[in-house]
Design brief:
The complex is a heterodimer of chains A (421) and B (137). Chain A has 421 residues and is an all-alpha fold. Helices cover 70% and strands 0% of the residues of chain A. Chain A is elongated and about 80 Å long. Chain A starts with 8 loop residues before the first helix and ends with a helix. In chain A, 38% of the residues are buried. Chain B is α+β, with helices and mostly antiparallel strands. Helices cover 34% and strands 33% of the residues of chain B. Chain B contains 5 helices and 6 strands; from the N terminus they run E-H-H-E-E-E-E-H-E-H-H. Chain B is flat, with a radius of gyration of 18 Å. Chain B starts with a strand and ends with a helix. The chains are: A mainly alpha (421), B alpha+beta (137).
């Protein structure tokens, strides 16, 4: 339901309501009904009912309110039938009370309660007691508008497998009583960090596409960018929230230039900069500035600052690699990781020459966690080639090619290998 | 309110290291007192080592008795807590306070209430009266 062309206005209205209102209605109904699965089923029922009712009676003036009321009625019906739900009587009483209130006055949920419900839903979907793959799937399913089938295709698993993963996660939320709330202040930084990780993982899955032929899985990137923007609206005082949103926008702005018309992967320094999305770049830079003004530096802000420097250079050769190398240095201090060390080595190689880059990169070749990391060998090859060591560069390219699981990327590495003199 | 069982798994170690752990008893005393004062503690018990375990299986009407635990694993069940907690977050927070969490693993499992058990059985087709709850609990 998340995309496509709709022949008639009613289908289009239902699709639009699904896209714009579903997560909001669901977030509130989960709290009111006290049960994730029940609320989701009821919201699903309401959208199905909308197709018939709107075709018969016309599209309502406020589709969101219509769906909210219909979903609550369906939840009441389901609760009356299903005796297995915990605290059933209590839930029924609460929903019936809301239903009665609804008849007297139009429900105008105030803005802050909508915000709180959406945050509750985000923190529940990204709860650390759930498996990471389940957090990702649940977030896309309930907060993004993706169907189970679409998520399954994006992550290259069979639809029933993905369906089971989501059902299992929802069952755990109910059985283990994973709370539906925004974490307390003492847990918040940690838990928010977990939420940002989930969103960035979704983005990277779409952007980097570790497997398969399609370099850009557009939908995942767009969902992640939307989730990033939503978090900025919900938690505007957190610098890293703005940092992540900026980072994703700045990466995503270059998406049109990353693949040429023949499907070939185009490295950053060879990209046609006129293809970059200037609107997204402007938005990303504005968000980065907003993050920096909050004066709480963090990982995502540093990465966004690095990306901003790469983007702002008028052409690839004019990139300020010295400053980028410095930012990577700060990033390594904040989050010591061999992958960041590698990026730093590449930047230093471009700022201070191949010898300085190789001096930082070579110790990483002995790191067992990077042994099968394709970019390490590709970067090694690049530096060796610039140092004039064609034989060494060829060996490293072959290693990188053997490790690449992406056809487009592999073709590019092969092209570079054959260009060696 | 929900009930959780915290299953404490830890590697069985040599006597010297075990003696070191035994000297941590005051930490357990403090934890248990604080859990009791907070009204969370329903029960806690430590088990004898797996050397004293006996496993029973009935197969084809025959009872088989074997010396030893259910499975030979590096970390073994050493004890358990039953806690009343508001939700999983609170149970996880308490689990992290168990001294054995630093060298072992504390598995947190929600306990199924007798009512839930009855509902699950009924959904599966079992014919049970409401009073069965009292016998199950």
């Amino acid at each position: 339901m998340s995309g496509g062309v709709h022949a008639d206005p009613v289908s289009a209205a239902v699709a639009r309501a699904f896209r714009e209102e579903r997560a909001i209605v669901l977030a509130t109904l989960i709290r009111q009904a006290g049960d994730f699965q029940l609320a989701e089923d009821a919201v699903q029922d309401a959208f199905e009912a909308a197709v018939t009712a709107w075709r018969r009676d016309g599209v309502p003036a406020n589709p969101g309110a219509w769906i909210t009321t219909a979903a609550r009625r369906r939840a009441i019906d389901r609760l009356r039938r299903d005796r297995s739900v915990a605290d059933r009587a209590e839930r029924l009483a609460e929903l019936t009370r809301l239903e009665a209130q609804d008849e007297e006055e139009l429900p105008m949920d105030d803005e802050s309660s909508i915000v709180d419900d959406r945050l509750r839903l985000i923190f529940t979907c990204c709860h650390p007691a759930l498996d990471m793959s389940a957090r990702v799937a649940l977030t896309l399913r309930t907060l993004g508008g993706m169907t189970t089938g679409e998520i399954a295709r994006a992550f290259l698993v069979a639809e029933p497998t993905m369906g089971k993963r989501i059902v299992r996660a929802k069952r755990k939320i109910a059985d283990a009583h994973i709370p539906y709330r925004v974490p307390a202040d003492d847990e918040l930084p940690d838990r928010l960090g977990g939420v940002l990780r989930v969103v960035y993982l979704i983005f990277n899955e779409g952007y980097a596409a570790t497997e398969g032929d399609q370099l850009v899985r557009r939908e995942l990137c767009e969902e992640a960018v939307r989730l990033g923007e939503l978090l900025c609206r919900l938690m505007p005082d957190d610098a890293e929230v703005w940092g992540l949103s900026a980072l994703m926008l700045l990466h995503d702005a270059r998406r049109p230039a990353r693949v040429d018309p023949s499907g070939r992967y185009v490295a950053l320094d060879e990209q046609d900069r006129s293809l970059w999305d200037r609107g997204r770049i402007g938005e990303g830079l504005a968000r980065l500035e907003r993050a920096v003004r909050l004066r709480r530096p963090g990982e995502y802000q540093l990465q966004a600052a690095i990306t901003a420097l790469q983007i702002q250079a008028p052409h690839a050769d004019a990139t300020d690699w010295a400053q980028i190398a410095e930012l990577y240095g700060a990033l390594v201090m904040l989050n010591p990781s061999p992958v960041i060390e590698l990026n730093r080595a590449v930047a230093v190689g471009l700022a201070d020459g191949h010898a300085a880059g190789l001096a930082l990169l070579e110790p990483l070749l002995g790191d067992s966690t990077l042994e099968h990391y394709q970019p390490l060998h590709a970067a090694h090859a690049e530096l060796l080639s610039r140092a004039g060591d064609a034989a060494g560069a060829a060996r490293a390219y072959k290693r990188a090619i053997a490790l690449s699981s992406n056809a487009v990327e592999r073709a590019e590495l092969e092209r570079r290998l054959s260009a060696l003199r | 309110m929900a009930q959780y069982m915290l299953l404490v798994y830890q590697p069985e170690v040599d006597p010297a290291e075990q003696a070191e752990r035994e000297r941590e008893m005051p930490m357990f005393v403090d934890l248990h007192r604080s859990l009791r004062e907070a009204g969370l503690l329903v029960g806690v018990q430590r088990l004898h080592s797996t050397e004293s375990a006996t496993s029973v299986r009935v197969r084809g009407g025959e009872t088989e008795i074997t010396d030893g635990p259910f499975a030979i694993t590096k970390e073994v069940l050493a004890g358990y807590y039953i806690l009343d907690c508001a939700d999983l977050d609170e149970a996880l927070k308490q689990a992290a306070r168990v001294p054995a969490a630093r060298y072992g693993t504390v598995e947190v499992r929600p306990i199924m209430s007798a009512e839930e058990w009855l509902n699950v059985s009924r959904e599966a087709g079992a014919d049970l009266p409401d009073e069965a709850v009292k016998d199950m609990a």
